[in-house]
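can u do me a favor
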């Protein structure tokens, strides 16, 4: 079955950087688009970034454009999220999720299951 294991979260000061990783297994990684989503306390989950199967296209939420970069390594079945200039409002649990390619940029329909998430806390 689909397994997604996120790592790389932690506590960082405002302005700092982190790189999250998500290792996938149980499906053909290169056939699916990948997304990073986050959920802050008391808020709904939101899409942070997406990347197509072979990295042809990336998409970002307005709140993270210019600060976050999503990239993937299909040989390692891993997707990453490089986060720079972190702000307190970036504090959340971050999840990676596979999506059906035909829904990229529209409904972002989830394929398989969610990972357990990794906590990112931005605080001085």
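np, heres the sequence
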């Amino acid at each position: 079955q689909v397994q997604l294991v996120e790592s790389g979260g932690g506590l960082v000061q405002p302005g700092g950087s982190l790189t999250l990783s998500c290792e996938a297994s149980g499906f053909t990684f290169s056939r699916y688009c990948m997304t990073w989503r986050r959920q802050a306390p008391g808020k709904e989950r939101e899409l942070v970034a997406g990347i197509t199967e072979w990295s042809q296209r990336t998409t970002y939420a307005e709140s993270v454009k210019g600060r976050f970069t999503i990239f993937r390594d299909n040989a390692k079945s891993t997707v990453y999220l490089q986060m720079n200039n972190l702000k307190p409002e970036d504090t959340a649990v971050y999840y990676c999720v596979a999506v059906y390619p035909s829904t990229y940029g529209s409904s972002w329909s989830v394929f398989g299951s969610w990972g357990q998430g990794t906590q990112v806390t931005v605080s001085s």
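The CA atoms of residues 13 and 124 lie 5 Å apart. hope that helps!!
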